[in-house]
Specification:
single chain; alpha+beta; 6-stranded mixed beta sheet; 6 strands
């Protein structure tokens, strides 16, 4: 078996990692912050030119969650799977008081209660660029 780098229509920041790696019927999604293409492009440019990293824009938390979960869904599907095949999800919230809002949106990406993956959710001391959350996952290809 060979390790396969999975690509999808998800913005990359130029960091030293791949967003998704598949090995056999397993895939691993790196921690995804809520970076849209505009902000990811600013990050890539700043890194390439060795400039200071731009501040994360003021994006409503609900929008941040949807960006992260949409990117996770795209990567999962590009790996040949679906959200119901996620086995483990780890969530870092900047503010744990937003857990109910996060959970409401998160649940909508799965078919039902029985397909929800195992999950850890915690408050982070600091998130990337002080965004509202970061989420990573492990799943399988049926």
């Amino acid at each position: 078996m060979n390790k396969e780098i999975v690509k999808a229509d998800v913005p990359e920041t130029g960091g030293p990692f791949n967003l998704c790696v598949r090995y056999g019927n397993m895939f691993y999604i790196s921690g995804l912050p809520p970076f849209d293409e505009g902000y990811a492009s600013q990050l890539r440019d700043a890194r390439a030119k060795k400039l200071p990293i731009p501040p994360f824009p003021d994006v409503p938390f609900e929008r941040q969650v949807r960006i992260v979960m949409d990117h996770m869904k795209k990567l999962t599907e590009a790996a040949g799977s679906n959200m119901d095949c996620l086995l483990k999800v780890i969530v870092w919230l900047k503010d744990q008081r937003q857990q109910e809002e996060f959970d409401r949106i998160y649940r909508s990406y799965f078919t039902n209660q029985e397909t929800l993956p195992a999950r850890t959710r915690m408050q982070a001391g600091r998130t990337p660029m002080d965004c509202g959350l970061e989420v990573e996952a492990i799943g399988y290809v049926p």
